[in-house]
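In the previous lecture we treated proteins in isolation. Real proteins rarely work alone, and many bind small molecules. This record shows how such a complex is specified: first the sequence, then the SMILES for zinc ion.
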Amino acid sequence: MSYLFRDQSSVTLHEHLDSNSLIILPVGTTEEHGPHLPVDTDARIAEAYGQRLAEALAPQIPVLLMDTIRYGYSMKIMQQWPGTVVVRTRVLMDYVFDVCRSVLDMGFTKLAILDCHGHHRGLLSTVSRELCDACDKAVAILSPARLSQEAYDAARKSKQGGSIHGGEWETSLLLHISPEAVDMTKASDEDMMRYHSEFVAGDGFQGRQQVSWSTWYIQPSKSGIYGDPTVASAETGKLVMDAAVQNGARFLKEYWDRKQKTESAAQS
Ligand SMILES: [Zn+2]
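The predicted 3D structure, ligand included, written as tokens:
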């Protein structure tokens, strides 16, 4: 039985509504990722993460995986390299809101958005609050970067500043999920983030990212990346994906088990 939303008919969706299947919506983007990675790196990670999460959850709870949203918002400064498609913040927020609202209006009550692109964090968080106001249902947001942070920090080979954009974290993940799309002969560490301070670790190294300050304005990038992809490996990528899936699936089981405010009110 397929767990893809797009494969369902209105009849099988009725069955999924009866079992209150968890809906997973991966959100990535398409933007330049340096000379060694494909421009759809974030969308690929989002799609793979969604598939692995759905596979991990399917034996435990009913689940439906939606198609990945592949275009999103990136800052204009990234358009200095070809490959960056920019959807305006408000357009993206409205679009994600409408996709989610449609699913919640269908009657589903558990919806998880996979946030797989740094520039979307605040936008998706605001959308989830707007959905609470509009539908009285709480949408969950998961980030594979944050859910794998501990495992990655223990395994990484790059120094602080090696993983912001197109660096060791993303390159390792791509070597794990899409090795054919990576050209390691073009990977270079010339754009390591070299600025670090008490407040700015550069890449959340060991949780040290206390303030928000756009990397793109701290240090210019020659190649379009920030970090060190030369030390990336498929092994590290697998370890990161496994940690993100394991932690994400544990959370989503908890999220699905927990009755929503409106569900318990309806039952009492
Ligand atoms: Zn990326």
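Summary for your notes: The chain has one domain: 5-262. Residues 33, 41-42, 165, 170 surround zinc ion (CB under 6 Å).
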